[in-house]
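Action item from last meeting closed. Structure (82 res):
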């Protein structure tokens, strides 16, 4: 039982590094979608350990806190005739 606890503790110590890797790997897509200023803010909030948990918890119930640069409108768009 003690050995399982030691292994679990080692895995939990490395877990934040994997989280940082996922956030940094997704950074180009976030920056493209949200723009440089708001995208950088979103990435900074996702890299802070406690703030990231709070942000994720709020986003579960309210949706994305930082809006995308291009949001789809409900108005139909017409294409120009060629």
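Sequence:
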């Amino acid at each position: 039982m003690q050995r399982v606890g030691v292994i679990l503790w080692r895995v939990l110590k490395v877990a934040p590094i994997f989280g940082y890797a996922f956030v940094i790997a997704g950074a180009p897509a976030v920056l493209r979608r949200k723009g440089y200023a708001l995208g950088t803010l979103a990435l900074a909030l996702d890299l802070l350990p406690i703030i990231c948990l709070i942000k994720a918890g709020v986003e579960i119930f309210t949706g994305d806190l930082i809006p995308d640069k291009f949001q789809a409108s409900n108005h139909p768009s017409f294409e120009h005739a060629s």
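Note appended to the action item: The chain is about 70% helix and 0% strand.
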